Fold this protein.
Amino acid sequence: MSFTSGHRAAFTSAHWTQEQLDRFARSHQFYGSLGERLALTILPDSSDPAGARHRGLLHPQWALLFPIAIVALGTLLATLRGAPARAKRWAIVLGLSLAAQLIAWLFFTHVQSRFLLPLAPIAVLAIVVLADSLSRGPARDRGLRVVVSLAAFLALGHAGWSAYLFTQERAGHPNTALVIGAGAFTGESIRTQLPNLPQAQRDEVLNQIPPEAFINLTLPHDARLWLLGDATPFYLGGNVDYNTTYDASPLTAAIDRYGSDATGWARYLRAQKIDYVLINFGELNRLVRSGFAEPSVTPENANKLVVSWGSIIHAWPEQGRALYKLRVPPPPPPSELPPDDPSPSALAPSDAAAPNTLEPSPSATRASDQGATP
């Protein structure tokens, strides 16, 4: 089979720059020493920006599966001399498999607990082989009863622990989204009723719904929204621009062109037909703290943009998110335009837009302005 140019392109960097490739590689590598790698198999990672947490065999999602499997495998290996030939073969194969998987996890991943998944079948097999070995021999009947009891206890215990972890999701309400449905996130469940509510009650509802529902219900139909920090537009309708942290951001392009001039940034973004921006300051902070963000995409630059040329529409301080309308800066004199800059007319698109589906009252907007910049 010959490779066409299209095939070759699939294995190149495509539209990514070298900086993007390097940043992606850095965020998917572990730079600790061998001792640190080995320690993370059983000890929590105290350097995690979100707080100390396990990344290895003792991660809560695995419960006691791996410790029990290691004990089972150790028991099998310690009793090889008197064990049946079948158990010997299984013990050696499972021991080598477990060692190979752990070595691969230590040196070919960035040492996260999810990459231990290939060890789970090996762990289960080790426990099963030990159970089978114990159920044989002179005390077969008694041993079988003990093994079955232990196996049932382990299975039920692990299932119970998994259920407990699930109940802790979403602040102890893991199934809330299933009950309220997608309409609660998109706003469709209240779209027809909301216009008929008194203004005060309408504002109260708008202050309680999530950002996606607020945007779908209040922004003009032809408005273009840009997500800064977020990259999950699933519940948003209309025209939405976004990028993952590893892709090029419009903010970076604006800063590359205009340096520290926030007015130039706003001109550039409006020239891209961006009318509104939803900023997730909390996510930007996390990405910067973790080293995943583009160098120019920082909470400080995002704040500088909206302080200079943004009008607050609504804020969700508990989420660290805020929605702004980008104002239209005056076009620069032709003598100040960079050689490849859009024309002045393109830099100042009209602020006229289709009527809002639902207009929040000025009082609601003023209320949301408090704490708009997390």
In short: The beta strands are 44-45, 53-54, 224-228, 239-241, 276-280, 310-316, 321-326. Confidence is low (pLDDT under 50) at residues 1-9, 343-357, 361-374.
